[in-house]
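Figure 2 data, in text form.
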Amino acid sequence: MEKWSQIALRVGLGLVMIWFALQQLRDPLPWVSYLPLWTKNMPITQVTFIYLNGWFELTFGILLIAGFYTRIVALLLSLHMLGIVLTIGYNEIGVRDFGLAAALVSIFLYGPSSFSLDKFFSKRNIVT
């Protein structure tokens, strides 16, 4: 069971990241209201910022599901989610994202599980 718990956590969180990413890429305008005021002073538009965030979450969600650079991906995603928590504050979104960040820290601490590209490539290096 333990073997499957980390896989289920990795895939589940990856799918959550991908879902949010696709929502942002499909229609970024509603997401602008969640951005902090300082994003208005950036050299890119807030909509472009949302697109970049969407692509980040899509890419890293896919990498998380695949288990490729699992620890690095989980760490970056957890820091990303904690950044959102600090920006959004203590509300339903902040609490949800704190839970997602904690789950991502769990993946970071556990490292690559079976059925991941990390394990596949590490086995190939031992054989050669």
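Caption note: Helices lie at 2-26, 29-32, 46-66, 70-88, 92-110, 117-127.
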